[in-house]
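Protocol check, entry for the methods section draft. Step 1: assemble the input record (protein sequence plus ligand SMILES). Step 2: submit for complex structure prediction. Step 3: store the structure tokens unaltered in the notebook. Ligand used here: fe (ii) ion. Step 1 record:
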Amino acid sequence: MIDIHAHLLPGVDDGPENWEETLSMLQTGVMDGISGVVCTSHVVDYLSKELENEFKEKFQQLKKTVKRERMGISLWLGSEMHYYASYNHRSKVATLNGNGKYILLELPFIEIPNDVGETIFQIALKGRIPIIAHPERNLTIIRKPELLYELVQRGALLQINAGSLTGGFGRNIKRLATQLFDHQMVHFVASDCHSPRSRPMILSKAYGAISKRWGEDRAEQVLRINPHKAIMGEKIYPPEPIPFDERIRRRRGRFHFPFFRHSSTG
Ligand SMILES: [Fe+2]
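Step 3, stored output:
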């Protein structure tokens, strides 16, 4: 399995506080069967040259340690760009593995900005593919998941947190993560690990849950094949998403039809 969303560089965001925590998280990941991970620290406002250099230096230090300790895990550098920092993505650190293709984009947690469709379109115009990080945790999307359909239609891909699918963020978020799978709108599952205590680097439980409900091919797709392609900057051909309202219409049609017949004939 390959993890495309992980906060591993110490002291740069709300991830690990020191190198000891970073290495402990990586050991958990290796034990879990994760063979590669992208270090995606938060970029909240602006990706300054200083922040970029700090990411790069700490990443190189981590790579050396992992090699020296023979930990057996591949590392790549990227970042998690907050929505309002997303225009500043000329830097290589803004895209996964600096490939200039896939950008991990975090929406605000409560609202969906009105211009999100336009922003995604603008990112796509520059030849980049936005991957929306954990949309299942956004409060507006929990109420109106159909908003995501338009974004996927405009070319966005979606990344769900492993913990969302296995119930770590509560029942509502698990339900939405499951619905998104049912509607063919999940393209990646990642850990979004932050520390050894909260949100560890574990993907195997999600792999098992996906395999059980949607089949092993689906688990391979979202936990190995698509992550590998995104890191290599290769094209991903996602399945056609199923609109939410269509499913609701179909369900209503099934349940309401007999009542309609009854009232019209009675
Ligand atoms: Fe994150």
